[in-house]
Amino acid sequence: MTFQNQGGTGQPVNPTIAYGQRTDAAVQGAFLTQSFFWMFAGLLLTAAVAAFAQFNPSLLNFAADYFIFLIIGQLALAVGIQWGIRRISATMALGLFFVYAASLGITIGLIVGLYDGPSVATAFLSAGAMFGGAALYGYTTKRSLAGIGGFASMAIWGLLVAIVVNLFLGSSLLGYVVSIIGVVLFTILTAWDVQRISSGQLVQALGSVEKAAVIGALHLYLDFVNLFLFLLRIMGGRR
Q1: CB–CB of 213/35 below 8 Å?
Q2: CA distance 227 to 184
Q3: What percent of the chain is predicted at pLDDT more than 70?
Q4: What is the mean pLDDT of residues 85-90?
Q5: What is the pLDDT of residues 22-66, one digit of tens each?
Q6: What is the mean pLDDT of residues 156-178?
Q7: 120 burial via Cβ count (<10 Å: 0-12, 13-18, 19+)
Q8: Cα dihedral value 29, 33, 35, 39, nearest 10
Q9: Higher pLDDT, 219 or 203
Q10: Which pLDDT does position 20 carry in this prediction?
Q11: For 95-111, what is each residue's pLDDT tens digit?
């Protein structure tokens, strides 16, 4: 698996770009193209598994019975890919990313089954619009988003704690507030992740274009999926 500069030079992209230093448009586009390609591949796999689950009651029953264990396993896998990326190959990291995307398809298949079709479509289109707008801003802005992005990244852990607490409380109001905060945080993270990818920060940090593309794809994938799920919680009409 070899990634090269798509700007027409035929030379590998330079992995030693200092953070904050804007690369030329061709190299920025190459970084984003690589990450977005794997992100969309992961989303297609998730959608395919979720659709399959809708016609497989036994799979949905399995997901319902072991929902907490699935969530814990998926969280551990996502964190493990990011923490272990320097010690594993890019090919293995990509394989684990697809395992994660496939497993999340089972979970999402169970969740979307609780909502009517128009609500799911509205949430998906809204997530796409917000993701696209945030990505465009992150790509075009000359302002560093490191400060607000770092804050949003840390706030995710607090959001996770609030979600776990609400599993026991079952408060609809708290769930609604958490969903709004989640939409805001992942919109910010989308812009920050796009800026980090296009500026070459991930390549510099990992020393590998291939690994940076996988991690970038994972971050963008998580941004979109979480935007969709939080918007579904806000807009969704239960069956």
Answers
A1: yes
A2: 9
A3: 87
A4: 91
A5: 445 666 667 788 999 999 999 999 999 999 988 888 888 888 888
A6: 86
A7: buried
A8: 140
A9: 219
A10: 41
A11: 999 999 999 999 999 99
Task: With a cut of 80, say whether residue 239 has pLDDT above it.
Answer: no
Which residues are CB-neighbours of 209 under 8 A, at least 6 positions away?
Answer: 3, 12, 13, 15, 31, 34, 203
Residue among 114, 151, 100, 132 at smallest CA distance from 227: 132
**115 has which bridge partners?**
238
- Strands of 77-207 (E only): list them: none
Rounded to 5°, angle at Cα 43 from 40 and 46: 155
Euclidean distance between CA atoms 132 and 197, whole angstroms: 15
Write out the two tokens for 141: 């802005």
Question: How does DSSP classify residue 238?
Answer: B
Angle at 214 between CA 129 and CA 133, to 5 degrees: 15
Which residue is associated with the tokens 């980090």?
A: 196
**Residue pointed to by tokens 């497993």:** 103
The amino acid sitting at 179 is S
The predicted pLDDT at position 217 comes to: 96
Host H or E run for residue 19: none
For the chain, what's the residue count? 239
pLDDT exceeds cutoff 90 at 189: yes
Radius of gyration of the chain (CA): 18
Coil, strand, or helix at residue 207?
coil
Q: Which residue has the tokens 């890919």?
A: 81
81 contacts 131 by C-beta, under 8 angstroms: no
